[in-house]
What we know:
This protein has helices spanning 15-24, 43-57; strands at residues 2-8, 28-35, 61-66, 69-74.
Amino acid sequence: MTLGNMQLGKQGITDNFIENLRLAFKTHGDMKIHVLKSVGHEKSKVKEIAEEIVDRLGKNFTYKIIGFTIFVKKWRKPKR
C-alpha cells in the first residue's frame, strides 16, 4: 500500500473531508494530511484536529504528528 496525501484548509474538518479520507483509505494504507496555515499554525490546534479526525473515522485509526503534518494509519483490528 502507498502513502496518500491530502490538505486541510480553511474550511476545516467537514463531512466531505472525512468522506474523501475514507475513500482514500480504500486505495492507501496510510494518509498524510498537511495542515495549512489558514487553519491555524499552533501545535495544540494540530493535535485537536488530529484527534477529531481519528474520532470521526473510527476505532481502527491512529495518528502521529510531525510538525504540521498528521500521519493517519488504518489498522486491521480496532486499537484498544
